[in-house]
Design brief:
heterodimer, A: 336 residues, mainly alpha, ABC transporter involved in vitamin B12 uptake, BtuC, 75% helix, B: 256 residues, alpha/beta, Rossmann fold, 4-stranded antiparallel β-sheet
Chain lengths: 336, 256
């Protein structure tokens, strides 16, 4: 690897590390960077913490897993968006816009609220099934409608509406005090309930997905001029599609079952990363992941502090940023 | 005869698009595919590249059916230039030409010195060295086709398939492009619309009509007034002109 290839990745990793450290210190309880370090160090067995157990708990049980989950979700959603955009040759593709996140939500609430599968099916498995069903439906719809860029997006909108409605319906039928909160969580996403299990599961899935996507990096480059051109460059188009669509659906499902359907991260960040790295996926994917992580860490920090002590669902903030970006991308591609 | 098609047919939606076509270009030669719209030129090229499978017959590379070869191996020796391709990705000319190295490279490894050498040579050959940093979307139609040909050359093919590469180009760029392609030391099969361009640049011509080969041979053998009348439904006068006495077609009008 040349220095030019590694530099943006190293710079991104540094920015991410600093963002994590800073974001943990921000919040209602007054905690400094040194407090964070001593807590982390004590839990890693490197010296004792001088903090009270409550302050230690705020860092180790609340802020740290939440901030890490934000980073993992941001990275994962951004990578999903980048891969979908290249594979479908559609600059507007993203797990949320194409209804995959909504489908994962529906699958998850079917398991959580209605108990589908009778305990034998985990939330993540339900979300994965939901993600695959919605992805399949949207791709089938868009293919039937003609397969052009706008058709794919329209099919995605239809899929998103359908699965959002199903999710709301399922959650409403449960009708307990938590209902409204539950609907908001699954439709807009929230990092509020993040625990260490969520972090580890999502991180593991992200790591696997990232390795698979990176191994297909050059194959994704070959899709620039369409699938026939890719086939003529030696790509097995059907296998590549199957593998990458399944991997993105799996990653989306894992993220959605921990944090709900956070919108537009996968749409915005790949475009920003492409402006930094150029189109080659070997560099684009890692930088997209880092940019997504940094982005969501700060968006979540904003979401939990701006109306303090009230919390804004993180998906509201990403949508407020994402919709103008969506329009901007649409505007730029209007010639097509 | 490294690339050959033996009695290939292709049926789609119950319609026979190609019907028992045999094609075996001499190594290093340029074969022109002629025929009206819908005569099966593009389908034949897609069968030759292995992107489509024939419903009957077989396409072989050095005797091995192309369907039995891994796609990557095919792409290392056979390159395709499609009619008109476009992308929304912000690619430079250099990025486009580098795509030609995809079948030669392994995952997780950076481009080798040989990759870069081949890309540079392809840019040189197509006269695009100066433009290597220019963005694809700012290129003219002729430059885009050149960039695609450079990409194809970066694949280091022994066979090159082109589908109407001169479409939408002005006459200067049409001549320029065909001169470039025919001078390449590879076996070339090129679908063309223009009978005179085919006569000027092709070693042999295959005339397709309703999915069948109706004539094959040198330009002078194939391009006759009777055949042009039969296949295209037009009246024409054809006579030899210039050095090499290549036929020239002058159209008089459609047949009633």
């Amino acid at each position: 690897m040349s220095l030019r290839a590694v530099l943006p990745v190293m710079a991104g990793a540094l920015v991410l590390a600093l963002s994590l450290a800073l974001a943990i210190t921000i919040g209602p309880a007054d905690i400094g960077v040194s407090d964070v370090w001593s807590t982390v160090a004590s839990h890693l067995g490197l010296g004792a913490s001088e903090l009270t157990p409550i302050r230690d708990g705020i860092v180790w049980q609340l802020r740290l897993p939440r901030t890490l989950l934000a980073a993992v979700c941001g990275a994962g959603l951004a990578v999903c968006g980048a891969v979908m955009q290249s594979l479908l040759r559609n600059p507007l593709a993203d797990p949320f816009v194409l209804g995959v996140s909504s489908g994962a939500s529906t699958g998850a609430v079917l398991v959580v609220v209605l108990g589908v599968g009778g305990g034998a099916v985990s939330v993540s498995a339900g979300a994965f099934a939901g993600a695959l069903v919605s992805f399949g439906l949207v791709l089938f719809l868009s293919h039937t409608l003609g397969g052009t860029t706008d058709r794919v997006v329209l099919a995605g909108v239809a899929g998103m509406q359908l699965f959002s409605a199903l999710t709301s319906f399922v959650v409403m039928t449960a009708a307990d005090a938590e209902t409204t909160r539950g609907v908001l969580f699954w439709l807009l996403g929230s990092l509020g309930g993040a625990g260490w299990t969520d972090v580890w599961v999502c991180l593991a899935v992200l790591a696997v997905a990232l390795v698979v996507c990176l191994s297909y990096g050059r194959t994704l480059d070959a899709f620039a001029f369409g699938q026939d051109a890719a086939a003529a460059l030696g790509v097995s188009v059907a296998r590549t599609r199957l593998v990458l669509l399944c991997v993105t659906a799996l990653l989306t499902a894992a993220l959605v079952s921990s944090a709900g359907a956070i919108g537009f991260v996968g749409l915005v960040l790949p475009h920003a990363a492409r402006a930094l790295t150029g189109p080659g996926h070997a560099r684009l994917l890692p930088v997209t992941a880092l940019a997504g992580a940094v982005f969501l860490v700060w968006v979540d920090t904003l979401a939990r502090t701006v109306l303090d002590p009230q919390e804004v669902p993180v998906g509201v903030v990403t949508s407020l940023i994402g919709v103008p970006a969506f329009v901007a991308v649409l505007y730029r591609t209007r010639r097509a | 005869m490294s690339l050959s098609a033996q009695r290939v047919s292709r049926r789609a939606d119950g319609r026979l698009i190609l019907d028992g076509v045999t094609l075996a270009p001499d190594e290093g030669s340029t074969v022109g595919l002629l025929g009206p719209n819908g005569s099966g030129k593009s389908t034949l090229l897609r069968l030759l590249s292995g992107i489509l499978a024939p419903t009957a017959g077989v396409v072989t590379l050095d005797g091995t059916p192309v369907a039995d070869l891994p796609r990557r191996e095919v792409a290392r020796r056979l390159a395709v230039v499609e009619q008109q391709v476009d992308t929304q990705v912000e690619l430079t000319v250099l990025d486009v030409v580098r795509l030609g190295r995809v079948p030669h490279r392994r995952a997780w490894t950076p481009a080798s010195a040989e990759d870069e050498r081949t890309v540079r040579a392809a840019l040189e050959r197509t006269g695009l060295t100066e433009r290597s940093g220019q963005l694809w979307r700012t290129l003219s139609g002729g430059e885009r086709q050149r960039a695609q040909i450079a990409r194809a050359l970066a694949q280091e093919p022994r066979e090159l398939l082109l589908d109407e590469p001169t479409n939408h180009l002005d006459i200067h760029h049409q001549l320029d492009l065909l001169a470039l392609v025919t001078a390449l030391p590879v076996t070339t099969v090129v679908a063309l619309h223009d009978l005179n361009l085919a006569a000027m640049y092709c070693d042999r011509i295959v005339m397709l009509h309703e999915g069948r080969v109706v004539a094959a041979g040198t330009p002078a053998e194939v391009l006759t007034e009777e055949l042009v009348a039969k296949v295209y439904g037009v009246r024409a006068v054809i006579g030899p002109v210039g050095e090499g006495e290549r036929p020239h077609v002058r159209f008089l009008g459609t047949l009633a």
